[in-house]
Automatic annotation (TrEMBL):
GO terms for cellular component: anaphase-promoting complex; nuclear periphery. This is Anaphase-promoting complex subunit 4. The gene is LOC110424001. Pfam families: ANAPC4, ANAPC4_WD40. The keyword Transcription regulation does not apply. InterPro entries: APC4, Apc4-like_WD40_dom, APC4_long_dom, WD40/YVTN_repeat-like_dom_sf, WD40_repeat_dom_sf, WD40_rpt. Keywords: Cell cycle, Cell division, Mitosis, Ubl conjugation pathway. It comes from Herrania umbratica. Residues 309-442 form the Anaphase-promoting complex subunit 4 long domain. Residues 28-113 form the Anaphase-promoting complex subunit 4-like WD40 domain. The lineage of its organism: Eukaryota, Viridiplantae, Streptophyta, Embryophyta, Tracheophyta. GO terms for biological process: anaphase-promoting complex-dependent catabolic process; cell division; protein K11-linked ubiquitination. The keyword rRNA-binding does not apply.
Length: 749
């Protein structure tokens, strides 16, 4: 901490100045704790306390392109270059879940929870309670593969409950993880684990909100820069670059077209389905996400029980789980005797009992809970007035419920066969041991030499006739079933039995695959239904960009934040959309054609300008801030209510790492916002109306802290703690306290 300067002289107090091993490219403060997550240039994630104590470091092994925190701060979402989104535990950085929602790099993540407290009254039964724990013990864990140490499978240890807490969303507020990739796709996941929708901005039909223009537009070659879901989950603001053109269909019909507008655009998407149906979506996501966890338990259990080996290599795999090494194999072939038989008996019977434990402790409990949860979903699907609107199809759910019941019957059937086989082998080895003892008591010259190969041949025969292995076959194998049993199964259909009468001919693995396929089909319907209800409501063209490929890779500092609108009280259900106001800030690059280079644009009210166009055509307000001479904007962030933090670098520096910089806070409430008219045609850049009303910033008139280093993005600002972390070009991290009236922040973790 500095000692030669006092906080009274300087606006911001320097708390720390620490070196970093590698340059930081992404940084985000935890919304609930004094924790800072940082991503280095070599794609490592570092988690530090406010006092700069490092808690953990992880490396996903792939390039990290985005990062955000869960609203409660207990998990962190990481977007990767290959389109994967991984969720990590804040306590130790362990992988909790991995979703392959995209096919290209995830460039923006935003995790938002419902800002309204869930009510619990007789009129609106919005609080959902998961009843599974009332009837079942805790859900089974994924079994470990034999021979692996804890952690090798990528799953959590039995003593850790982080993964279970992630899946148990009953006690969470309803929240949505929104992700956007560089090809224009946006995915939505409830609680970050259950995919519920996907759109592509290239395919969106963008209407014009003006009565005198009925044309629709589309964005071509669009690339997403930022996505931001509103606090009430009703709107999504998308910052993207691309070419805005009139719909080709309308042009073919002879309508007058306009030239393409290539630049930075702001889209407003209607996501009110999340708010209107949050209670129904909460219940479906709760059941479906837990079912997916249990499916993974069953898949791994079947994998543990299966061995893809030949009789010559491992004849003990007749039970599907006995594992032998080459030395043991030689021992069994060449050295069988009384002691050898006992050891073989122990291995074989132990393998059978191990299979029974896998079924009883993992596979069967998972199948039972899946059946219960599908029953819950089946009941919900029959409530058509509430759940048909989100795509919960009764027919598909009924089919998936039947498949889960059939799997449970197959598990019971497998257990009976397995128990019978284990008992038969136990009897066989008891008989063999008694025979050896009797033979060994006779004089050796009266008996033929003991030949252990005869025992191996006998076991080989049993292997060829193995009744257990067919149930675990991955390929299509028909289980032989007598005609009388099949006829009885067909007769049970009339009394409410399974409509699929051929399940007795299928293996356990094939039955699991059919059940998993039916679940995917059933849960795809809500995904498709919600995706179709997310529509584009408005577009705000901001400024032009060159159409060259080089301009597409330019990173424009921008920030989108929603604040409570003090002028509007949220008093009822109907007024929920007006409880927040959006602030959008962005830097206008020097190659913009609007002749307003080196300026920062700030708009507010875009989210509500559409609903007010007929009443107040000038409801959208914006302002242009001219950066002080000799500086350019490196990054910016909206901070608390109506404050903007700017990070500025000197433009006269000889190199990127030399020179000075400054951090500035501007009060948005004091800015001369100008109303922008939205009553004209869409094909113009809205910021051009502000060229004559630019506000010039001066260092001596604003709240500024000079920094004796050249700085680089990102600027990490914590609104809850009033601190900002700035990264110098020479691999240093500087933490400042932004609020003068706050005491020194101490580590409270």
């Amino acid at each position: 901490m500095e000692t030669d300067e006092t906080p009274r002289v300087l606006p911001f107090q320097l708390q720390f100045d620490k070196p970093v091993a590698s340059q930081i490219k992404i940084a985000e403060w935890n919304p609930e704790k004094d924790l800072l997550a940082m991503v280095t240039e070599d794609s490592k994630i570092l988690l530090h306390r406010f006092n700069w104590q490092r808690l953990w470091t992880i490396s996903p092994g792939r390039c990290i392109t985005s990062l955000c925190w869960r609203p409660d701060g207990k998990a962190i979402a990481v977007g990767l270059e290959d389109g994967t989104i991984s969720l990590h535990d804040v306590e130790n950085g362990k992988l909790l879940r991995s979703l392959k929602s995209h096919t290209v790099a995830v460039v923006s993540l935003n995790w938002e929870e419902d800002g309204q407290v869930i009510r619990d009254d007789s009129v609106n039964n919005s609080k959902y309670e998961d009843r599974t724990s009332c009837f079942f013990p805790p859900a089974p864990r994924v079994p470990r593969m034999p021979g692996l140490v804890p952690g090798d499978t990528g799953f959590m240890d039995d003593s850790e409950d982080s993964f279970q807490e992630l899946s148990n969303s009953s006690y969470q507020r309803f929240n949505i993880l929104c992700s956007g990739d560089k090809d224009g796709s946006i995915c939505f996941s409830i609680f970050g684990i259950f995919p519920i929708g996907k759109i592509n901005i290239h395919k969106l039909s963008i209407p014009t909100p003006f009565a005198n223009e009925q044309a629709t537009y589309r964005l071509l070659n669009a690339s997403i820069s930022k996505v931001a879901l509103s606090k009430d989950l009703c709107h999504l603001i998308v910052m993207c670059s691309g070419e805005l053109n009139q719909d080709e269909v309308e042009l073919q019909e002879g309508q007058l077209g306009v030239d393409g507008m290539h630049g930075l655009h702001c889209l407003l998407l209607d996501t009110s389905i999340f708010w209107k149906r949050k209670n129904e979506l909460h219940q479906v996501a709760q059941q479906a996400s837990n079912i997916e966890d249990l499916i993974e338990v069953i898949r791994t259990s079947l994998s543990v029980m299966w061995l893809d080996s030949s009789p010559q290599e491992e004849f003990l795999s007749l039970l599907g789980g006995a594992r032998t090494s080459p030395p043991v194999h030689q021992f069994l072939v060449n050295s069988l005797g009384e002691l050898g038989v006992k050891r073989v008996s122990k291995v074989v019977c132990g393998a059978g009992k191990e299979l029974q434990h896998v079924v009883l402790d993992h596979l069967q409990p998972a199948a039972e809970i899946i059946g219960f949860r599908m029953g819950e979903l089946r009941g919900l699907s029959r409530w058509r007035t509430r759940f048909q609107g989100i795509g919960l199809d009764e027919t598909l759910i009924n089919n998936a419920t039947e498949k889960s019941g059939i799997l449970l019957v197959q598990v019971e059937r497998f257990m009976r066969v397995l128990s019978s086989v284990v008992q038969q082998f136990s009897n066989f080895f008891n008989w063999l041991l008694k025979c050896i003892k009797l033979l060994m008591q006779e004089p050796s010259d009266q008996l033929l030499p003991y030949n252990s190969e005869l025992v191996v041949i006998f076991l080989k025969f049993l292997y060829d006739q193995d009744p257990v292995r067919p149930f675990l076959e991955l390929s299509e194998v028909v289980i032989e079933t007598d005609m009388e049993t099949l006829q009885r199964v067909r007769e049970l259909v009339h009394f409410g039995g399974f409509s699929d009468c051929e399940y007795l001919r299928r293996t356990l693995s094939e039955e699991f695959q059919q059940m998993e396929s039916s679940f995917k089909e059933a849960f795809l319907m809500p995904f498709t239904t919600i995706s179709q209800k997310i529509l584009c409501k408005d577009v705000l063209p901001l400024f032009a960009l060159p159409s060259s490929p080089a301009s597409m890779s330019v990173t424009v500092p921008m920030s989108v934040t929603y604040y409570k609108d003090a002028s509007t009280a949220m008093s009822s259900y109907q007024t929920h959309e007006h409880g927040f106001i959006d602030y959008i800030s962005f830097q206008i690059p020097g190659d913009s054609s609007l002749d307003i280079a080196n300026c920062i644009g700030i708009s507010k009210g875009f989210m509500h300008s559409l609903s007010n166009i007929t009443e107040d055509p000038a409801s959208l307000e914006a302002v242009l801030l001219s950066v002080p001479d000799g500086y350019h904007c490196v990054d910016l962030s909206l901070y608390k209510e109506g404050q903007i933090v700017l990070l500025l670098n000197e433009t006269t520096a000889a190199s990127e790492s030399s020179g000075e910089s400054c951090m500035m806070i501007v009060q948005a409430n004091d800015l001369p916002f100008v109303s922008i008219s939205r009553s004209s045609c869409i094909n113009h850049w809205n910021l051009s109306q502000l060229k004559d009303s630019v506000m010039y910033l001066h260092l001596e008139n604003e709240k500024v802290r000079l920094i004796p280093h050249s700085v680089v993005a990102p600027l990490a600002v914590s609104a809850s703690r009033g601190v900002a972390c700035v990264f110098a070009a020479r691999k240093r991290a500087l933490v400042y306290i932004l609020d003068e009236d706050e005491d020194d922040i101490s580590d409270t973790e």
